[in-house]
Specification:
Chain lengths: 396, 260
Amino acid sequence: MGIVLTVFRKELKDSLRDRRTLFMLVVLPLLMFPLFIGLTSSFIASHEARAQQRTMSVAVFMQGNEPGFSDYLLEQESVELVEVEDRARAEELVRSDSLDAFVVFAEDFDEVVGQLGTGHVDLVMKVTEDNDIQRRRLQGVLTGYAELLRERRFRDMDMDVSVCQVLEFETVNLATVQERFAEVAGGILPYMFVIFCFMGAMYPAIDLAAGEKERGTLETLLTSPIGKMQILAGKVGVVILTGITSAAISFIGLYAGVRYISSIPPELFDMLMSILRPGTVVFLITLLFPLTVFFASILLSLSFTARSYKEAQSKVGPLMPVIIVPAFIGMLPGIGFNALTAVIPVLNVTLATKQILAGGADPLLIGLVYLSLVVYAALGLLICARTFSRESVIFG
Amino acid sequence: MIEVNDLVKTFKLSRRQRREEGWPEGVHEIRAVDGVTFSCMPGRIFTLLGPNGAGKTTILRMIATLMKPTSGSISVCGFDTRKQPGEVRARIGFLTGSTKLYDRLTVSELIRYYADLHGMDEELYQERRNELFDLLDMNDCAGRRIGKLSSGMKQKVSIVRTVIHDPDVMIFDEPTTGLDVITSRSIIDLIHRCTDRGRTVIFSTHIMSEVSRLADDLAILHRGRLLFNDTYETFRRNMAESSVEEEFVRVLGKEEPEWA
């Protein structure tokens, strides 16, 4: 055991002095979420602000009706009333983005409204993801105008507008904080942990296996008195440690991003943090551990079969989608946690985490998740040990 | 002492190797070492001479337990390389021309690492380390990272790494390849020092001048077979050609092994 620790300490020291490893282990997981959250929040906020302040050009076709709406529109902020000769021309201008929208009142609008009917109005514009705010603004204007007309109608009838509200309802939510947020948080957290765990393990595995072969130091190491499996144990230990550490650091980055950068209200943040009790975090780590052992074994096995660092990267790279897809599927709502999904690696970690966070997880299924992960970890180690034993792998 | 008996090593060829190296159809394995027998005695320098691809490195790797023989046996200091590989590795120092070091470790860290792998106790390690560092004038660079050292200094570090545990058997695989004259000289000096202390030394080379300067016993290897195995003195005495180099080429051209 002492000799394994000697190898472990040296490999860890060597790995931590590699800039690529440090970047993937510490910098990327720590900064990714704050940067992502910060950039996304500020982009969305500035996009919203710009969209709200932008002056919209709108044409109105009253078609012989009273110009009440035109006057109402002129009172709105950041709206410019534009004269356009006809509807066809207005459509042309909207399609060419020279006009934001036009409003067409039905010819019989005043008549229908006067007879206590519902007048028809067309709001014509290009509705896309980009100008959704403009759509909401104009719909808000029309809704405001409709409210104005409704109040006038009831005043004319000498009645209060509240008489048309026959029923009001309020939703009383009995779902706990856990139930409300676990579905979302329980999907995102393991997704994030699994990805960073894999990425944190990947570069050290390549460096300690293919990198060592390429640098020519492996042959010398193998002439020392310690056994091959002791050397391998030291390397596996380092890769596992870096994987788990990367996941833990990504959590710190997420906490910092949500706490200090995003616009999540403090009470909501407190609710989110209440889900992540120490017990939950410990549970997540115990789930991640056998999964990380599995990752480490497979990464080292593939890296040992490569002749160079670059070749190892090309062998290991395709594993990323193999890891990401089941993690992503686990995030989706409606994916059942059952005996089948409990044994699919990565997916089972995501689903088990969701269940634990929501409360009421089936202990048998959780047990099945652990058992399957331990079996995969053991198989991975066996494959790794066999690979490292082959002369063609060491000297190939 | 090293004893090698009827050593054979075959390698299976992968499809990629057959394709890339142009092996004919039907050839699935190659015999890199073919029935080699020799002994290396303590206090003598045993030289394995042969052209590239002769099988020298394969033999040395088998002695160092890096590879397993297909058949035959190797014993190092009385320990069988197949049955007691750990015991063998505890008694050998291995240095090749392609030996690399850990660039991100300091000199002291590297030497300490290998000392720990050999289970050296603290007192012995310090004594040995100080002796070697003084001998090779390495005290100034002890705290520097190996990646920052000159190639000559790196070779010195390799030497210390190889002998820190004072092994009984030294294995050198073309140790001076790619080195300048001065650095090569330090390797040659090390080899002499080892034999002066009664160590068993085996080294491989394809450089005739090294053979002339170092060899006590000589084995000439070609295509995995020994063509000559006797003392260097016997080789020189029975030369049919005027120079050692030409005699070597002549021996390589023989179908059958030739020794006195």
